[in-house]
Amino acid sequence: MSHIEWFLVANSARATVYARAEAGEKVKAVRSFEHPPSRLKTAELGDDKAGRELSGRGFGGAAFEPKLDPHRKEHLHFAHELCAFVEHEAQQAAFGSLTVFAPDPFLGEIKKALGPASTRVLAAAHDTDLSHVGAAELDRRIAKAKARERHE
User: Fold this and answer.
1) How far apart are CA 77 and CA 32, in angstroms?
2) Beta strand 28-34 with 14-20: parallel, antiparallel or unpaired?
3) CA separation for the pair 71, 50 (Å, rounded)
4) Three-state secondary-structure class, residue 30
5) Could you tell me which residues come within 8 angstroms of residue 103 by beta carbon, excluding any fewer than 6 positions away?
6) Kind and range of the H or E element at 126?
7) Closest CA to 85 of 5, 30, 26
8) ω before 105 within 30° of 0 (cis)?
9) CA 59 distance to own-chain centroid
10) Could you tell me how far CA 99 lies from the centroid of its own chain?
11) pTM for the full model?
12) Which of 2, 142, 12 shows the shortest CA–CA distance to 77?
């Protein structure tokens, strides 16, 4: 099993996977992702119909399916794109542990989209958006998060 640590730093519009081979080593970017549709206004994304009627002959024969918000649909798409990459690399044993930093509710979407190989190596998930910080600050924040994990 690989001793390489991976860190997925994401929000609903962009993400970067960082790696570190040894404790104390600086993180290095492995791959970056952009998802421009997440930044578009709802009108630019298009809109689903309000719901579609399901008819049946029994009691409560008419029901409406809930509408899926266009932004949430894009967030789900991006979460699945990120997790497909991470899962493929986990299956190849490219890393031995994964820590995710993403704000809720996107963090929840990522956790739901992780595959079995990446779920096995998931070390921690933090509800925080670090996508805007530089590499030096990211190293400091990762160390702080790991210290908190040890004390919990």
Assistant:
1) 16
2) antiparallel
3) 15
4) strand
5) 11, 127, 128, 129
6) strand 122-127
7) 30
8) yes
9) 41
10) 11
11) 0.79
12) 12
Half-sphere CA count of 131, side-chain side, radius 13 A: 19
Looking at residue 57, its amino acid is R
Beta strand residue intervals within 13-106, DSSP E: 14-20, 28-34, 53-55, 62-64, 97-102
Q: Which are the contacts of 70, defined by CB distance < 8 A and separation ≥ 6?
A: 42, 45, 46, 47, 48
Pairing of strands 5-10, 14-20: antiparallel
Q: The dihedral of CA 100, 151, 143, 2: what is its sign?
A: negative
User: For the chain, what is the largest distance between any 2 Cα atoms, rounded to a whole number of angstroms?
Assistant: 66
**Residue 53 corresponds to which tokens in the numbers above?**
């009627």
Per-residue pLDDT, 136? 83
Least confident stretch, 37-41, 78-82, 83-87, 101-105: 37-41
Q: Radius of gyration over alpha carbons of the chain, in Å?
A: 19
Dist. CA 148–CA 68, nearest whole Å: 36
In 3D space, the residue among 118, 111, 43 whose CA is nearest the CA of residue 76 turns out to be 111
Tens-place pLDDT, residues 44-60 = 545 544 444 444 555 55
